[in-house]
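Troubleshooting: if your tokenizer reports a length mismatch, compare your output against this known-good record of 103 residues.
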Amino acid sequence: MTTEIHSPVERDAEDETLTEAVVLAVADAVDADPLTLEPLHDCVDPDALDQLFRSADDHADSVRGRVEFRYADCDIAVHASGRVVATPVKPPSVQSESLAATE
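Known-good structure output:
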């Protein structure tokens, strides 16, 4: 059984909130309907995420940093610039197959 792993998806939260950008990037990364994903609030506080870099709008050149977490089988990086990167992680069955192949 082979499970397809998708490439990382980058999205800029220009016309949407950071939480919307996270959900949409993950949906693209795992090829799923955003409405079928687990609730984002199960792994991170959406209000806190949206407010975390809100001051970056006023001081775009001086605010730096990122927050990282795992959501819906993706590693998520949210940058102060508003860039969101969703990188799919290998499902356990694929990791097991990879390990078995190297033994």
